[in-house]
Amino acid sequence: MSIIYFLIGCSMVLALIFLGAFFWAQKNGQNDDLYTPSVRILLDDEPEKKEKSDDDH
């Protein structure tokens, strides 16, 4: 029966750690921009500029 109390205590500590990590991430602005990552794949990459050399005719 004492193992149940130990496991409940461990799960409460783990839940508090995750809750603290969530609030820390919110405070540091981890979820400020939710729109750009979802549409980034739809945007075309900038084409690379090819430099013209003397050998190219």
Could you give a short description of this structure?
The protein has about 55 residues and is an all-alpha fold.
Q: What can you tell me about this protein's structure?
A:
With 57 residues, this protein is mainly alpha-helical. The chain has a domain at 1-27. It has helices at residues 2-27, 36-39. The mean pLDDT is 84.
Structure characteristics:
single chain; 57 residues; 2 helices; rod-shaped
Layout of strands and helices, then pairs:
Elements: H1 2-27, H2 36-39
SSE-based structural type: mainly alpha
3D shape: rod-shaped
Please tell me how large the radius of gyration is.
Answer: 26 Å
Overall pLDDT score: 84
* Low-pLDDT stretches: none
* Helix-strand topology string: HH
Termini separation comes to 85 Å
Give the oligomeric state of the chains in this entry, treating copies of one chain as homo and distinct chains as hetero.
single chain
